[in-house]
Amino acid sequence: MKFTIRDLISLTIVISLSLGWCADNRKLHRANEQLQLENLTLQFEINSLKSYPADKRRIEEIHDAAKDGELPQHHAEEILFTVQCESDFRVRVRAMAVLPLLPEREQAIDVLVAALRERNQASAGDGVVPMYAVKYLSAMKATRALPEVQAWLHYLRSEQPFEPRENGQFISRTELFIAELMLEQNGRP
Questions:
Q1: How many CA atoms lie within 13 A of 10 on its CB side?
Q2: Helix H or strand E encompassing 107
Q3: What is the pLDDT of residue 121?
Q4: Which positions of the chain have pLDDT values less than 50?
Q5: Residues with Cβ < 8 Å from 155, sequence gap 6 or more?
Q6: 127-161: per-residue pLDDT in tens?
Q7: 136: closest CA among 108, 155, 176, 161?
Q8: DSSP annotation string for 26-65
Q9: H-helix or E-strand spanning residue 169
Q10: Domains of the chain: which residue ranges?
Q11: Could you tell me which of 115, 69, 62, 109 has the C-alpha nearest to residue 89?
Q12: Containing H/E element for 113?
């Protein structure tokens, strides 16, 4: 079998084209992976911004101001309104964290009691809002809300409105908060 120069040149061209194609394909593959990674990173950023609305950021600013004791009256009113009227339960729960810091203690307790009375509404976050209301009522040592907290416990036991595991957790935490409120009401030893 004889190879001519023309055959060797043709073979060299084919090998060169194949090697060039492989190198190009690797570069394109790496560039594609990089673009997919950048796309995924951007999607995470977009999703985190969607799930963390401006209301939450605003509430965090107000919470920080309340911790420092520099809370203007209009911020207190904004927080009270948010807990009462916001449709997103996550925002409502964040706003509840500010209520123990408000100088308008009685108004804050009234708003928490109203949130505690919510039962099967979508804005109650499947029991999350009433449970946090119980938590913050206990933190505020709001003994006048004890009958409402006991009514919530009765509702949890009698209706069992949530999944058994969640319902059990809600009951045990509510019992704990009731015990704390009763200790406060009877005077801590």
A1: 5
A2: helix 105-116
A3: 65
A4: 52
A5: 119, 161
A6: 889 999 999 999 999 999 999 999 999 999 998 88
A7: 108
A8: HHHHHHHHHHHHHHHHHHHHHHHHHHS-HHHHHHHHHHHH
A9: helix 164-186
A10: 1-51, 54-186
A11: 115
A12: helix 105-116
Contacts of 182 (CB under 8 A, 6+ apart): 146
Nearest to 171 by CA among 141, 136, 127: 127
Residue owning tokens 């319902």: 167
Whether the CB-CB separation of 149 and 185 falls below 8 Å is answered with: no
Token output for 25: 């394909």
Query: How far apart (Å, rounded) are the C-alpha atoms in residues 154 and 167?
Result: 12
Provide the token pair at 106. 């009685």
CA distance 133 to 135: 5
Burial class (CB in 10 A: 0-12, 13-18, 19+), 186: exposed
- Who contacts 107 (Cβ-Cβ below 8 Å, separation ≥6)? 80
Rounded distance between C-alpha atoms, residue 60 and residue 103, angstroms: 18
CA distance linking residue 108 with residue 136, whole number of Å = 10
Composition of the chain by helix, strand, coil, percent to 5? 80, 0, 20
**Residue 145 structure tokens:** 């809300």
List all residues 6 or more positions away from 143 whose beta carbon is below 8 Å from its beta carbon: 181, 184, 185
Q: Which two tokens stand for residue 57?
A: 């950021």
